Amino acid sequence: MLKGLIMKKQLFLLAFCCLAAPLHAQLRYAGSDTVEPVVDAARTAFSRSHPNFKLTISSVGTSSGLRELCTNRAFFVGASRAIKPDETKECERAGVTPIEVPVGLDAVVLVVSSKNTFVKDLSIDDVKSIYGPQATGKLTSWKALLATFPEQRLNAVGVGIKHGTFDFFHAAIGNGKFVRSDYKDTIQHDETAKIVAADPGAIGYVPLSVAKDFASQLRIVPINFGEGPVEPSEQSIRSGKYGTLSRTTYFYVNLPALIKAGGESHEFIKDLMTNLAKYVTFANMTTLSPQQYQESAKRVGLTRPN
Questions:
Q1: Is 304 helix (H, G, I), strand (E, B) or coil?
Q2: pLDDT per position as a tens digit, 166-190
Q3: What is the domain count for the chain?
């Protein structure tokens, strides 16, 4: 009997130890694959001092990511556009108040294959014509766009409707959400880049950072917004010269849920916010001003080191 009591005591202590042992947080990021490289850079850096830290990254697009935030399936999401009023209301109905954190400046750029030698630049009206619904069945070759172009089949490529970049791009070129019916939609920007790289007749739109990643296979097309062709660069994005195709990217955070989760999840977000400019630069995006990052850190209840 004594032996049985000792065994029960040992089992109890073992169970107590296991329950008392610290649990490593498993944080989930969902949303834009435009913003994902920033998160991935932060995860890599944080994991050096927190080797057991777990972060699931799910690049499901801005709209789907915000839906996960509003249903408490993700504590923070990335967005390639600002949250919409109806999305904010959906969150509020679920008792979630998303805190907006501007991440960095980005540009959506038009790309063609490096094998395409005839497209030197395009006007914003050309881009609208290529992607607009009126192009279906009519603007099927490059020659139909411009008489000096060859009789090369024109294939328009880009991400699907669940992506914030889809919303942003088609609004920026003046087409709203309307797009040609033979538009080739993709799941992620990398897929767009690969399709365009392999097809001399294709044109696609991707974030500038993705175009840089595929620099040996793609060529960025300068866009004329009315005052001559403009190359996307840090200077043209900051100054506004890159016109309607420049944008701000965001994080949206469910702060009470993160605080409640505590542990490494909260520590990771603190590291992300305090070093956001560094991670944005690493991800080939353009940083905001130090004051903007300071304001964001305060908004989520953090302070940045001087």
A1: coil
A2: 999 999 999 988 899 999 999 999 9
A3: 2
The two three-digit tokens of residue 41, written as one number: 């850079």
Distance CA 195, CA 163 (A): 18
Domain harbouring 94, CATH code: 3.40.190.10
Residues with Cβ within 8 Å of 142's Cβ and at least 6 positions away in sequence, in order, are 118, 119, 149, 150, 151, 152, 153, 154, 201
The whole domain housing 79 covers 25-104+248-299
As a whole number of angstroms, the distance between CA 123 and CA 125 comes to: 5
Q: What's the whole-number mean pLDDT along residues 289-306?
A: 78
Closest by CA to 254, choosing from 70, 78, 87, 82, is 70
Strand order in the sheet with 229-230: 122-123, 223-224, 229-230
**Ranges assigned E (strand) in the chain:** 26-31, 54-58, 76-79, 99-113, 122-123, 155-159, 184-186, 202-207, 218-221, 223-224, 229-230, 246-253
pLDDT of residue 12 exceeding 60, the answer is no
Last residue of a domain, one of 226, 247, 268: 247
- Report the candidate in 68, 59, 71, 29 with the shortest Cα–Cα distance to residue 46: 29
With contact defined as beta carbons under 8 Å apart, do 233 and 239 qualify?
Answer: no
CA distance 258 to 269: 8
Picking from 86, 102, 90, 51, the residue whose alpha carbon sits closest to that of residue 248 is 102
Residue 25 pLDDT: 42
